[in-house]
Design goal:
Chain A: This is 2-oxoacid:acceptor oxidoreductase subunit alpha. The complex is a heterodimer of chains A (about 575) and B (about 290). With about 575 residues, chain A is an alpha/beta fold. Helix content of chain A is about 35%, strand content about 20%. In chain A, the strands form 4 sheets. Chain A has a 7-stranded mixed beta sheet with strand order 9-8-10-11-13-12-19, with helices on both faces.
Chain lengths: ~575, ~290
């Protein structure tokens, strides 16, 4: 019995790789397994190799695996490109139609199943993904009825006849392969999962759900990979809660529309990726200058320019912190787990209103799109705090005076009103202004207003601004990272510990303002520090050096080829750096 | 009920004496009072440029944003609170150069709001460069040999983009301008009002006298039917874009905010944000 295995399906884009993966993983989720998925895809709709990999485990996992147990291939290219990942004794299930062969040097068992032939016999070659998934499910020896239920849900809206045909395709695929193999493969017999149904989602869905929970009722956005799922989810859900999504003409319109709606009192967000964020920079300055709450999600992908639009990278951090001209207060947070994707939205909307600043939530492609098991999300943690937003009746202003929207207060945050409120009229402008919002070039006023705005965030720390796992008083290595890489680091650490290398681990979540005081004791305690990130220039490492120093201790571990780190890569690099 | 005086404030505009924008300011104040608004029910969102300052000169909620983006900001305000009356405003550079993309899409989106452009055919605040509205051959600091680009016709663009209300006026004609803004405010949808608002400092060609000589007032055509889109386009072309009055109105098409499924009359900003436990559980079920 094994406690985990990795399964991958590959083919041409548009061939049903996505739907097969969806049904396969839904069925596994129903059985209570923990799952972690990785999508390899290109910026095109049809054609080009694509593959989805899922790791299946009886225990929580948050990383892709180094190797592969089962590869389902629709074409020879999928075998040639992925067979190298197969561990010795791995299995390839491939369509007999293309007379599949295993590349030299790869020790794997091949099951050539007449996938297309069976599908065509049943009416349409479109069903070949069902035959293939049935075959691989069969090899695992998992209960068929759970798989059939998932098929039923996928095709239910197309009517019972279609459902039945697809279930038959699954049955035939399983039947064929089991005859060839002589029954389910013992080496792939998974231990039973706990049977408890878990949440299974991508980071973008967790964030979109977090939006709804946070009371966000409007979204303005322009489609972009890998952010679009957020708007697609919200356009389905927000109308049920009175809101809507507007697909704007560009990202500048998206962010300024969000600013207008926040000014007028509705929690409103936009989401994009690097190219969109670049366009939004001037408007983010408007939000900071006018102290208008704003929440933006940046799903980082490979840059610069169009870069690698469907690949993993963490290279927007500098742009998010420094991109706007002039100096404004802002918060930049990078969630490091799927659960944080959800909770950070709620906290992000609260902070945007409590501090009246722009808040940027920066994920990366793997966190945004990798489908994975999430811990139960807690309704009781959904708390909405709108800060100094006033409601009810306002006292009349003095003759010829306006409401002091930018009143100088001890904490720098001023009372806020929204349009429509009597006696609340004030002016809002991106020009430097006085306490009523009137343009002012007065030097003393300028200093006071700059200090007020920038001072607001001096003590701002989000929940778990850093997340530390520091079992060693003086570790050989402190590994620091951000975003989706935490789970992979954990696996590498287990191997390092087994080899006697003591490691501590910190995920930095708050990128700006930088929580240097929280990081300091960890940096002090470590003999060496490895800062691991998916970019070419070490943006996080530079932030640490800028804020904390420790230039002599810090080493970069960088990967910018578009793929996420594997546990083995981190393990090897850390050993070398130690 | 508020009078136009209540839409005044004590801020002295920084416009040059004689600037056309003073009359546009007065017309907005009068129109707002005439349609029965209270100051707090009005939000004026403006762009950047001389005319962009207008949001600070009207006693109403006002937001002076960034160059070219008054329209998306204003649309956000309207979506957040349908109970507000929303005016977006700015100059021809703001709306027809840097913000042209937003102008076309705001027109076709057709939210219930009014867009007033103060069109002086030049960049004033940056001290005299060409604008998309400048005539060919127009000499400015950035076109010392005369502009070699063709002049943009915002009214033709508006019609072809699906505008439901297109009007044009002249800042000297306060009566017509006030009436058109009132009509725009009452129109259920996006209303574009382009206003010839002369720049007395940098534009020595398109002067008050020049406009008086060249404007073609629709009052001259008693049979003109503003519901006829083809006639509207023809009239704009025949007059080389110098026609004033209500040029086109489509009363049939519903405003965007009326067509959003499930969108309530009550401003979204006033609605409850809290998600019930039951709704939350229902949302989670989809991920199981």
């Amino acid at each position: 019995m094994i406690s985990q295995l990795s399964w991958k399906i590959g083919g041409q884009q548009g061939e049903g790789v996505e739907s097969t993966d969806r049904i396969f993983s839904t069925a596994l989720n129903r059985l209570g397994y923990y799952l972690y998925g990785y999508r390899h895809f290109s910026s095109r709709i049809k054609g080009g190799h694509t593959n989805n990999k899922i790791r299946i485990s009886t225990k929580p996992i948050r990383a892709i695996s180094d190797d592969l147990d089962i590869l389902v291939a629709f074409d020879q290219e999928s075998i040639d490109l992925n067979a190298g990942e197969l561990r010795p004794g791995g299995v390839v299930v491939a369509d007999a139609k293309f007379a599949p062969t295993i590349p030299e040097g790869v020790e794997a068992r091949l099951f050539a199943v007449p996938i297309t032939a069976i599908a065509e016999e049943l009416g349409t070659s479109l069903m070949k993904n069902m035959v293939a998934s049935g075959a691989s499910w069969g090899l695992l020896g998992l209960p068929m009825e759970v798989f059939n239920k998932a098929v039923e849900e996928e095709f239910g809206r197309k009517g019972p006849a279609i459902v039945e045909k697809n279930i038959e395709a699954v049955r035939r695929g399983a039947e064929f392969v089991l005859e060839q193999a002589g029954g389910p493969l013992d080496e792939f017999k998974l231990e039973d999962a706990d049977g408890k149904q878990k949440l299974f989602m991508i980071g973008n869905e967790a964030m979109a759900l977090g939006c709804v929970a946070a009371g966000c009722r409007l979204m303005a956005a322009y489609p972009i990979t890998p952010a679009s799922e957020i708007m697609e989810y919200l356009i389905k859900k927000l109308p049920k809660f009175g809101g809507t999504v507007v697909q704007t003409e560009d990202e500048i319109a998206a962010v300024t529309m969000a600013i207008g709606a926040n000014y007028a009192g509705v929690r409103t967000m936009t989401a994009s990726a690097g190219p969109g964020l670049s366009l939004m920079m001037e408007a983010i300055g408007l939000s900071g200058m006018t102290e208008t709450p704003l929440l933006i999600v940046d799903t980082q992908r490979g840059g610069p320019s169009t870069g690698l639009p469907t690949k993993q990278e963490q290279s927007d951090i500098n742009a998010l912190i420094y991109g706007t001209h002039g100096e404004i207060p802002k918060l930049v947070v990078a969630p490091s787990t799927i659960e944080e994707c959800f909770y950070d939205m709620i906290e992000g909307f609260n902070i945007a209103e409590q501090y009246q600043i722009p808040v940027i939530i920066a994920t990366d492609l793997q966190l945004s799109l990798g489908k994975q098991t999430a811990e139960a999300l807690d309704y009781d943690k959904i708390v909405i705090n709108r800060g100094k937003l006033l409601n009810g009746e306002l006292p009349a202003n003095e003759e010829n005076r306006l409401f002091k929207r930018y009143e100088l207060t001890e904490d720098g945050v001023s009372p806020r009103v929204i349009p429509g409120m009597k006696n609340g009229i004030h002016h809002v402008t991106g020009v430097e202004h006085d306490q009523e919002g009137r343009p002012s070039e007065n030097a003393l006023n300028r200093e006071k207003m700059m200090d007020k705005r920038l001072g607001k965030i001096s003590e701002l720390r989000v929940t778990n601004a850093i997340k530390a796992d520091a079992p060693n008083a003086n570790p050989d290595l402190l590994i620091i990272a951000m975003g989706s890489t935490g789970g992979t680091i954990e696996e590498a650490r287990t191997r390092l510990t087994a080899e006697g290398i003591k490691t501590n681990h910190v995920m930095v979540r708050q990128m700006h303002p930088f929580p240097s005081e929280l990081l300091k004791p960890h940096l002090d305690a470590a003999k060496k520090v490895v800062v691991l990130e998916n970019n070419a220039t070490g943006q996080l490492a530079n932030l640490i050096k800028q804020n904390n120093g420790y230039h002599d201790k810090i080493r970069n571990l960088l990967k910018y080829d578009g793929t996420p780190f594997l546990p083995s890569e981190i393990h090897k690099a850390c050993k070398e750096l130690n | 009920m508020a009078t136009f005086k209540e839409f005044r404030n004590n801020v002295k505009p920084n416009w040059c004496p004689g600037c056309g924008d003073f009359s546009v300011q007065a017309a907005i104040q009068r129109a707002a009072a005439n349609v029965g608004l209270e100051p707090e029910q009005l939000a004026v969102i403006s762009g950047i440029g001389c005319s962009g300052r207008i949001s600070g000169y009207i006693n109403a909620y006002g937001l002076h944003g960034i160059h070219g983006r008054s329209l998306p900001i204003a649309q956000g305000v309207k979506l957040a609170n349908r109970e507000l009356t929303v005016i977006a405003s700015g100059g021809d550079g703001d709306g027809f150069a840097i913000g042209m993309g937003h102008t076309v899409h705001a027109i076709r989106r057709n939210l219930d709001m009014t867009y007033i452009v103060m069109d002086n055919q030049i960049y004033g605040l940056t001290k005299g460069q060409t604008s998309p509205r400048s005539a060919e051959g127009f000499k400015t600091k950035s076109t010392p040999e005369g502009s070699i680009e063709s002049t943009l016709s915002p009214l033709e663009i508006a019609l072809s983009a699906g505008a439901t209300f297109v009007a044009q006026s002249f800042s000297s004609d306060l009566k017509q301008l006030t009436t058109l803004i009132e009509e725009g405010l009452k129109h259920k949808g996006f209303s574009l009002i382009n206003v010839f608002s002369p720049c007395v400092t940098f534009n020595k060609v398109n002067t008050y006298d020049w406009f008086k000589e060249n404007i073609v007032n629709l009052e001259q055509f008693p049979d003109y039917d503003p519901s006829n889109r083809i006639a509207a386009m023809t009239k704009i072309m025949e007059t080389n874009g110098m026609v004033t009055g209500l040029i086109y109105q489509n009363k049939e098409r519903k405003a965007y905010d009326e067509m959003i499924v499930g969108f309530k009359e009550e401003g979204l900003a006033k609605q409850n944000l809290q998600l019930s436990r039951e709704d939350f559980d229902k949302l989670l079920t989809e991920f199981k």
